[in-house]
Each structure stands twice: as structure tokens, then as C-alpha cells.
Amino acid sequence: MKNIYDASTTHEIIRRIDQLESDTKPQWGQMNAAQMLAHCSVFQDIASGDETPERSKLGRLVGRFAKPVFYNDKPLPKNMSTVPGMLITEEKSFDTEKDRLKEKTLTFQQKGPEKCTRHPHPFFGRLTPQQWGKGIYKHLDHHLRQFGV
């Protein structure tokens, strides 16, 4: 599994983000391209420790059993549910969100695993920095595939 801490993987992700257009339609799901970019930025904020949402009740019950889906070698399934508070429904500026996500992704990679959050994921619970690195890649890859890039 690719890991966002690897510079070449981060540059691949940024190149794919650059291929997005504001009117690119999703192959599944409800968010438009700008909302998806904003959603991915919120996820980056959680991984970096800038946001520390509480664990969900469902996550506390089953998150540890489902945790490998976050960092194993299989792509995330289409239409996978998202953590409450991470679903973006309001309109967003595509260019602003595109720039924001690229900056957050590059910054996370450059800071490295030592600066990754120690706060638990709101559903999966405690993750190692390497699990976060793989999971961030999988999450970004999932949403970029959602939009065909």
C-alpha cells in the first residue's frame, strides 16, 4: 500500500488533484468536486491533530474490528459512510478548496510521521503514524477515483 509520507506518492496525489475540474461529476456519492476537496481537507486536519473530534459510539463498539479497512491494500469501497461532521453539504469555492487540499497534503508529508496526531480516529480509534499515512493515501485515492482522476 502506498503511503502519503513518501514524497513521490504525495506528488502523484497532487498531480491527480490538479487534473480535477470544478464541473467534474462524481461516479458515485453526493458531493460535488469542491465539497469533496473540502471533505478531504477536514480529514487531513484530523490526521495532523488540528481537529480532534470525539469518537463515535459506533466506532467505540466496532471501530477496532473494522480498522484494517483503513490501511490494508484494498481500495476503500464505493459509497462508504463518512464520519459525521466530515460530510460537506454547503457550497465551497473549488479553487480555494483545491489549493487548500494540496497545501495540507504536502505539509503533512513534509512534517512526517513524528508530527502525526496521537488522537484517535473518530471511528477506527488509535492508529500508528504509518497506519495514518496509508489511510490518508487510501482516502485521497478513493475520492480521486470517485471523480475519475
Automatic annotation (TrEMBL):
Organism of origin: Salinicoccus hispanicus
Origin: domain of life: Bacteria
Pfam families per the UniProt record, alphabetical: DUF1569 (PF07606)
Protein name per UniProt: DUF1569 domain-containing protein
